[in-house]
Amino acid sequence: MPVMRIPMLDRDRQLFAYEIIFHHSPEDHETLLQRVLSTITDGALTRLVRGNRAFLNLPAELLPEDSDVLLHQPRLGLLLDPGAAADASLMKRLGLMSGRGCQLMLDGTELEAHDSLAIEALLQLVQFVRLDASMLTPEVLRERTEQLHARGIGVVAGQVNDHPTYQRCLELPLQAIQGRYLLIPQPVAVPVLTANRLSMLRLMRTLQEDNPGPVELGTIIRDDAVLSYKLLSCVNSAYFALPRQLKSVQQAAIFFGMTRMRNWIHTMAMCSMDDRPPELLRAALIRAQMCEKLATGMSGGHREMAFTVGLFSLLDTLMCAPMEFLLTHLRLVPEISQALTDRSGPFAPLLEQILAWEAGKLTSENAQPTQIRRMATIYLEATQWADQVYAGANENAAAD
User: Fold this and answer.
1) How far apart are the C-alpha atoms of 258 and 256, rounded to whole Å?
2) Model pLDDT, residue 29
3) Does the CA dihedral 149-153-158-163 come out positive or negative?
4) Count of domains forming the chain
5) Chain centroid to CA 22: how far?
6) Looking at residue 65, what is its pLDDT?
7) 2-16 pLDDT, tens per residue?
8) Are residues 12 and 120 in the same domain?
9) Shared domain check, 384 and 237
10) Residue 394: predicted pLDDT
């Protein structure tokens, strides 16, 4: 079923938990719970969250009567609407679940609209409260965060969609921060690239401009032992189930083709950026794979070019520099540059679909059910691929 994960990061920019959102339309409301439970029991949800803490965002009336399926998944919790406080039978069920270790988070966006005594009863059950930073003044956000923190309730700031708000949140006693800030480049007066990032851009430019063959590619990569090792470890992983082990970058380039191999080098190079949030790197990998899948049916090497568009769509955020500035170092083909700078050209519609999916704007009101189902399938496949590639790259780095 259509499902998406939204990360919540701690102040060290490491993953605190995922929010799991289930896309559904009013007409399939009755079958939503059954689908949710099947994603839990068949292991799809476990694969999606990789064993991390996750909070399921479900309408309160759809919370399972038999909560055993959740209690057997100690890393899965529930994100509750304040309206749950008015349902006596639901509150009783939540009390039993909380007492048996199920973690509960209250979405505290509109607490004032509900009975204060009922909300107080709900606050006695939950371990976390999420506050909407976009709807509260900085003063009110600080006051409520400090009040909840003093009660021993963890606070998550949600809808943190710009960097000034993010910086203010870092000054508060928060458990986690969630929002679009993660995917938005931070404004800088003068771009300054570290030596490592300049080296990465030079490598990417060489791969684009010189159009090397397998032998030349092997020579370019040979001097970077870490990148070569990551590259070969990844392409030889169980994910590809190759008939034989590839023992050199040259062999891999012949097997996969030069365009795809360039994309693999870009991917491994970006996974080496250990000063950036892992969830941001995963987001770039997910976009790359989704873009390639959406390009199925396009002519020539368009699928590989689409992969580059998706991967590089977060390059400005990853590099902490404007996209136009970075592209002067890369000299990409016009079709890719147009998609990245002004959202034009053949790949722009693919990227726009992905951005709409990420923002939760691809709904039954503006898209056909078949399109939503296709995007959901592509997203889940891309997420699994990105998680495996990122984990493989970092396991290899740890082993070096």
Assistant:
1) 7
2) 57
3) positive
4) 2
5) 15
6) 62
7) 789 999 999 999 999
8) yes
9) yes
10) 79
216 and 293 both lie in a single domain: yes
Q: Is 189 a member of any domain?
A: no
Task: State the CATH number of the domain containing residue 301.
Answer: 1.10.3210.10
Instruction: Give pairs for 148-157: CB < 8 Å, separation 24+.
Output: 149/173, 151/123, 153/123, 153/126, 153/127, 153/128, 153/129, 154/127, 154/128, 154/129, 155/128, 155/129, 155/130, 155/131, 156/8, 156/16, 156/105, 156/128, 156/129, 156/130, 156/131, 157/130, 157/131, 157/133
Q: What is the per-residue pLDDT across 97-144, written as a single tens digit (0 to 9) for each?
A: 888 888 999 998 777 767 788 899 999 999 999 999 999 999 999 999
Whether residue 184 contacts residue 317, with contact meaning beta carbons closer than 8 Å, is answered with yes
- Report whether 346 contacts 308 (CB < 8 A): no
What is the pLDDT at residue 137? 94
Regarding whether 202 and 141 lie in a shared domain, the answer is no
Asked if pLDDT for residue 96 goes beyond 90, the answer is: no
Residue 131 belongs to a domain with what CATH number? 3.20.20.450
Looking at the fold, whether 93 and 152 belong to one and the same domain comes out as yes
In this prediction the pTM is 0.91
Helix (H) or strand (E) segment spanning residue 148: helix 138-150
Can you give the residue range of the structural domain that contains 342?
Answer: 195-399
pLDDT digit string (tens) for 285-325? 999 999 999 998 887 678 889 999 999 999 999 999 999 99
**Residues 94 and 206 both lie in one domain:** no
